[in-house]
Amino acid sequence: MGEGRAVRETVAEILDALEEAVTGLYPAWLPEAADLTGPGGLALPAVRELARRKVRGRRDLAAFLADLAARSLTAGRLRLPRQSVPVETRAEGLAMAFATSFGRSHTVVLATVPEELSPAREETLVTAGEWLTHRGNLGLWLTGAPLRTVDRVPVLAIGEYGPASSVGSSASSVAGSVAAGSVAVAGRPHPGSSVEAALERALGAHTWAAGRAWNQTYQPHPLVNPIKIDLLWQEERCVVELDGREHRSPDHLAGDRLRDERLIEDGYTVIRFTNERVLTDMPAVLRELKRFLRSRREKHEG
Asked: Model pTM greater than 0.90?
């Protein structure tokens, strides 16, 4: 990159954090693979091929996304040899995956500036941000302590959050971007589920619903089959399942009972709503979720 070892290391740290976020967002950034779980059978080669198809004609980017999809599918438990990937390719792939997860066209990373950062470190951070913006297709916003020695970064006030510094990005781009590290929702509803989409629209209007994650895979260790969870609040250990009519069959009821028992044994509470109830009595569904989440948070704080 030519800007020095410290800048390279800072860029790598930012991309590492973004890659961790993208892995946690799977399968939102690759919705075609929403029904693939665990590394067994054909799931792993299938998810790699689906990732490659997103960028036909870009061999380097396709290879990186294929590896990223494989790591995401196994939640990082499957150790894969990391190929030598140009940092520009890695930044582009991560920016694409993160933005896709939220249906956006760009990704903006939010980084917190520590107190009493040295002038040299300030310069390194800003230079890394400029590199990511101009060559990595990423925006970078800085929050936290103000920059004291670097004066080429514009400072803007953004609503109730106070001043923030923009490195190589404009205020207009923030409205269409997502900041890594300040995400109120991970994943997204299944593209084919109008019920999940309706519930997400309703939850999106309430701050108490922050921290939710859609369509996550839960696998406490590799020796048990993974569980696909419709909606999860990890901090509150709350699992929400949305049940269609097929869940009324004896086989489905037995399978759901076994899933719930395993999750309960691991400390989760499982709340089930029928699709009909979500669509016809949304206020009651929201009240029940709000009451449960607040009780868990109050217990945790206590």
From this structure: no
